[in-house]
Amino acid sequence: MHHKVTIEPFRIKVVEQIRLTTEEERNDFLKAAYYNPFLLNSDQVIIDLLTDSGTSAMSAEQWAGIMRGDESYAGARSWRRMEAEIQDLTGCPYILPTHQGRAAEHLLYNHLGGPGKVFISNTHFDTTRANIEFSKATAIDCPIEESRHPGLLHPFKGNLDTQKLVERIEHYGPENIGAVILTVTNNSGGGQPVSMQNARDLAAICRKYGILFLLDACRIAENAYFIHRREEGYAHKSYRAIAQEMFALADGAIMSAKKDGLVNMGGFLALRDLDLALKCRTVLIITEGYATYGGLSGRDMEAIAIGLREIFEPDYLHYRIKSTAYLGDKLHDMGVPIIRPVGGHAIYVDAKAFYPHIPPEQFPGQALVCELYLKSGIRSCEIGSVMFGKYDEDGKLIPAPMELVRLAIPRRVYTQSHMDYVAETFAELLRERRQASGYRITEEPPFLRHFTARFERLPAREEATRPA
To answer: How far is CA 395 from the centre of its chain?
Structure first.
């Protein structure tokens, strides 16, 4: 019998209490957080869709693995198990454990970067861009044109534009390209998948020019699901085999295991080149920890080794993608403008279209994340001109290409009724959307400002400039 309802392929063994706040309380909480949901306390949030990173519910097997964790300083059994699992998955011989993905980015891009170096990606994630730019290098995004049109349907909207890549390589010179980075799935580009053919084409271009080709692989299992379903020749390949094929095309990979590793902390850098691995390992030992734990406890490494197996289970991946699409389809059907087709880990709402009366200079995405929280206690993340906007020489905002709000769904955490609650909230916001106003930044750091920036609500349109 074919069932229309996609059920969770697990049973709930432990529950965590949610405090149901009132709208009056949330007004006070958000004001105290300077209208930045990152600055809210977790017990002030009813449904937390800020990120899917490190927010997964671990399985009984993972918790059992935690009890087996070997906490020896060097050469622990848990390290050997995690190392073997990652080597089998990536095909890379040299594995450097880190406490999360951005630590691996720091190790690699500080070494490969520097003034005059250029990194090219389908879309750099925020921490990737920050680590590259912190080294004084330049990060350039080259997504395909279809990715810039939220409502346009395309099976692999996360692809990197190969023609633009060649043009950039020729313009800057191959010797100045630090690496080509393929983010799978393309998180900041709407959580959209990348095709195997695109990865194959990029690998060939990088080989031709002698450029390092890297994967940002934190959601590679979800990407493998889309390749299995959408790309010719992969319908009979397992999800894990598809991921292994993509890893085999690259010179190395960075992975935050906090996503498709199904853990709350951990990551790694996987490399094929011994000399590069040794250089990064030296900094690893100075900054993270010894080479066989790198900022992770043995129990973390056990959980990662198990999670990297569980993530490729067909029943889990089917549930994961279908349950995300469930919310996306409901929002689309009620008229909420979202990036389509729906990706694997999140719904991306087009805030520019949702609030057409709020100009980019007044951050429509920030307006939407604030309204979502005030209305129903839902925390989400702006991916627009707060996260990626820059200033010109006169301090005037240069907006990001798109103004998005990401509803990132933690793995194995929320049920269908939670998603129905989110959909009901959007129905209310749609009815009241003309009443929403923009925001102004009052305080911000030089890098990754969205994490700690402070805002104030604007009563009417004002020109956004760099805060004093």
So the answer is: 29
Helix, strand, coil percentages (3-state) for the chain, rounded to 5, are 45, 15, 40
CA distance 214 to 182: 6
CA gap 384, 381 in Å, rounded: 9
| Nearest CA-CA partner of 150 in 109, 191, 97 | 191
Q: Clarify whether residues 134 and 235 are in a common domain.
A: yes
pLDDT value at residue 237: 98
- What is the spatial distance between Cα 422 and Cα 442, in angstroms, rounded to a whole number? 30
CA angle 149, 152, 154 (to 5 degrees): 115
CB 159 within 8 A of CB 185: no
User: What ranges in 231-273 are assigned the alpha helix state H?
Assistant: 239-248
Residue where one domain finishes, among candidates 310, 345, 371: 310
* Tokens encoding 180: 């080509």
**Residue 260 and residue 302 in one domain:** yes
Instruction: List pLDDT tens digits, range 267-320.
Output: 999 999 999 999 999 999 999 999 999 999 999 999 999 999 999 999 999 999
- Which of 428, 451, 437, 450 is closest to 378 using CA atoms? 428
Question: Do 108 and 47 fall within a single domain?
Answer: no
Task: Please count the structural domains in the chain.
Answer: 2
pTM exceeding the 0.85 threshold for the entire prediction: yes
